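We include the pair:
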Amino acid sequence: MGEEIAISLKNVSKCFKRYNRPVDRLKEILLPGKSRCDEFWALRDIELEIPRGQTVGIVGRNGSGKSTLLQIIAGTLTPTTGEVQVNGRVSALLELGSGFNPEFTGRQNVFFNGRILGLSQKEIEDKFDEIASFADIGDFIDEPVKTYSSGMFVRLAFAVAINVEPEILIVDEALSVGDGVFVHRCMAKIKEFQETNGTILFVSHDLGSVNRLCSNCYWLSNGRVVEQGSPVDVSKTYQAWMYDRINDGIRKKVNNSQDLESHPKTIPEIDLNSTIQGDKKTENIKKNSFTGDNFLAFANAKRFGTGRCEILSLEIQDIKGQKNGFIMPGETLILHTKIISHDRVEKPIFGIMMFDRLRVDIAGWNTSQYKYKLPAFEQGQIINVSFKIIWPHIKNDTYSLEPAIADGSQDNNEMLDWIQSPIALKSGVTDLTFGMIRLTEIQVSHTIDTAIPQELLKLNNIK
């Protein structure tokens, strides 16, 4: 027997009509046969099938069609073409403000939304205390929603969405405005919902959250699905594409500057389309876009950057200089890297990111962060950079190390070469470790009170 499908979209497209003047809309209605609008296709030919109980992430830059897609699934928009099937009660936390009447109080909006979702008055009354407690906005529950801060609004919206017994939960980046404590409570609630076989559509720009929560991922760009697969694989390609866009902007600034004479070799054009054509995205990965030649090392690894520098090696060694792929907490780890420069690099920064097996970023370090200024690189030089690290007490797992070399400042730089998952490191444990890290400097003490305070006895009616 096949999996039960919770959400199915077949050839779904959505077109919005844009008119230069309001009267053009009226003319089109009264005088049919001539279009007086500009068409904007927010979605094109979307094919999507989500089995019940799966958590699916959707990533993409702003304007890629993510919110439109979720609104179609939630039923607040109708597609221009295609077929949509949703099996189960949907509760959606879309963009801030959607679904709530700003003139109603928080209490009135809870009942209003509950009835829209199909709950009876009695069911909402039974759940109200739980919703109000989770939202934790105090007396503001009886104030008009228009007086709420964005944080208060999202507290109430999520409390309603998660507590009305949905079968499908849609979350569209709204949690980004919540405070840290509330976001942790929301994530715990989402985990609880997953354990009850609930289906979740999760939109976020935080790739770490997508990798942690989701079992499948879709990347949208310009209204189309350009990649679908495991969150780890999609996030790697999406990360590379984002850096290509950043580098493309830098290239345009450099090439349009009046100081071109000091740049005998300008930053090469990046073929952005090659990074979003499904399986074709790896076709050009073996060639350096700056030199036009094959990469000198890590030929089979995914990488991105303008190519003015190349990373040639990354070695893990112990304190004795022996290569080592296994490390214990407290041991010294030395990371050696060789870089070749194909161009002059004015302000080089070298760093390494560490990811766990779900591609959640665990730690990162670079020369700028630790105030180590590398000299300018000259064309044809080979540069050796080393990091010496005392390995922390982290959980027993395998971690990937990703080296990167950039030109610029910490906040504004051109990515020259970033290699994804070229090398892995196995970490052992010496003591019992809960969660991600073990705190090593903890002092424990205790005292015993021999008498119970009278106030406590009175409070609990103890004789």
In short: Residues 5-233 form a domain with the Rossmann fold fold (CATH 3.40.50.300). The chain is about 25% helix and 30% strand. The CA atoms of residues 177 and 429 lie 37 Å apart.
